[in-house]
């Protein structure tokens, strides 16, 4: 802690010592008035949970740090490594403006969302440090344990039924990371992907249309159930594709949410999830419409037979310029020990 001396009368003493050991002492008084001696206290400093694993597996991926600042001051929150290096926690998500007194909330994921690698596994000291305009400084400290950082990895086995099954998880598999990196290099990224995501969040949060997310979600569910169900025909799937196009137009131009806040905003999350589900619905309906055969769970009454000559291929759905392009250019790998074959009963 570093602080100013509070108001009051103080006695000072000055002593001089010569090389021969002779001393001379003088004293006096010092009066301090109108000093701002109120410290930038941090009455609340909590971390929950105190152990987390930022690996995007959906289990304890994040931790929340809450700090209450008693007076206006600069506030920094950072992790302190064993060698003294500081790993700063990203800006807070609460509604208190930086530098103002109030509650500050930090949603920490180890940097995964921003595309960074999380700090190494271990127990860190978390420091909340407040310093006011005259240099007074207050720190609070706690511990945070980080486990199993990185991205979850899983091996996928192709089954004779045509389904994909996750059967083992291999953390830190260098071969898989290399393959994933190579695949990622072949896919162009926007100039500012994080900025585009935040812009979409802001658009949704400030939507002022007339259509609630649940209305569009219900319309999407109805057309998918009625037209892209277990048994499919071309006319039905074409109608679903057209319906989804109209639903997405309303999602972009006429969406309405009631909660425009930044904390625990379930309206915003529902709207965001709807956009993700529309992406999946578009992909499913258009892929099914383009595949003129029946295969596994894809059963077309107008094309009841399996067509290995034309469709023993993977379906790739590629978003491009606001549209989805379907690509059948990659054949199924026939070097597998279990060969694909028609499902019979």
Describe the structure.
The protein folds into three domains: 1-152, Immunoglobulin-like (Sandwich); 156-187, no CATH class; 192-303, Fumarate reductase/succinate dehydrogenase flavoprotein-like, C-terminal domain (Methane Monooxygenase Hydroxylase, Chain G, domain 1). The protein has helices spanning 174-185, 193-205, 213-227, 234-253, 266-290, 308-311, and strands spanning 8-17, 23-32, 44-48, 51-52, 63-69, 74-80, 86-88, 102-108, 122-131, 137-146, 155-158, 164-168, 231-232, 299-300, 316-320, 323-327. The chain contains six helices and 16 strands. Helix content is 26%, strand content 27%. By secondary structure, the chain is α+β, with helices and mostly antiparallel strands. The chain is elongated, with a radius of gyration of 30 Å. Residues 153-168 have low confidence and may be disordered. α3 (213-227) runs antiparallel to α4 (234-253) and α4 (234-253) runs antiparallel to α5 (266-290).
Question: What does the secondary structure layout of this molecule look like, with pairings?
Answer:
Blueprint: E1 8-17, E2 23-32, E3 44-48, E4 51-52, E5 63-69, E6 74-80, E7 86-88, E8 102-108, E9 122-131, E10 137-146, E11 155-158, E12 164-168, H1 174-185, H2 193-205, H3 213-227, E13 231-232, H4 234-253, H5 266-290, E14 299-300, H6 308-311, E15 316-320, E16 323-327
Parallel strand pairs: 4-10, 13-14
Antiparallel strand pairs: 1-2, 3-5, 5-8, 6-7, 6-9, 9-10, 11-12, 15-16
């Amino acid at each position: 802690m570093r602080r100013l001396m509070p108001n009051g009368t103080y006695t000072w003493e000055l002593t001089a010592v010569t090389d021969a050991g002779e001393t001379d002492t003088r004293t006096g008084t010092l009066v301090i008035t109108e000093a701002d001696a109120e410290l930038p206290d941090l009455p609340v400093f909590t971390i929950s949970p105190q152990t987390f694993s930022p690996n995007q597996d959906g289990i304890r991926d994040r931790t929340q740090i809450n700090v209450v600042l008693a007076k206006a001051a600069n506030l920094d929150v950072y992790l302190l490594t064993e060698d003294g290096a500081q790993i700063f926690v990203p800006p807070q998500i609460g509604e208190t403006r930086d530098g103002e007194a109030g509650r500050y909330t930090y949603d920490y994921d180890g940097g995964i969302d921003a595309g960074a690698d999380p700090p190494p596994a271990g127990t860190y000291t978390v420091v909340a440090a407040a310093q006011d305009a005259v240099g007074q400084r207050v720190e609070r400290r706690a511990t945070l344990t980080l486990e199993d950082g990185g991205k979850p990895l899983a091996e996928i086995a192709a089954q004779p039924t045509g389904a994909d099954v996750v059967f083992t998880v291999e953390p830190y598999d260098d071969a898989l990371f290399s393959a994933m990196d190579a695949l990622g290099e072949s896919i162009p990224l926007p100039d500012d992907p994080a900025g585009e995501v935040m812009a979409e969040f802001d658009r949704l949060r400030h939507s002022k249309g007339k259509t609630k997310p649940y209305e569009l979600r219900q319309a999407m569910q109805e057309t998918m159930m009625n037209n892209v169900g277990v048994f499919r025909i071309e006319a039905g799937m074409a109608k679903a594709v057209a319906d989804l196009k109209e639903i997405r137009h309303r999602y972009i131009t006429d969406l309405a949410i009631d909660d425009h806040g930044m904390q625990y905003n379930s309206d915003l999350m529902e709207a965001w999830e709807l956009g993700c589900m529309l992406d999946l619905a578009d992909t499913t309906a258009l892929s099914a419409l383009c595949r003129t055969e029946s295969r596994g769970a894809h059963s077309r009454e107008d094309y009841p037979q399996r067509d290995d000559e034309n469709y023993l291929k993977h379906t790739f759905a590629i978003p491009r310029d606001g549209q989805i392009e379907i690509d059948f250019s990659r054949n199924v790998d026939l070097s597998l020990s279990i060969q694909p074959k028609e499902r019979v009963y």
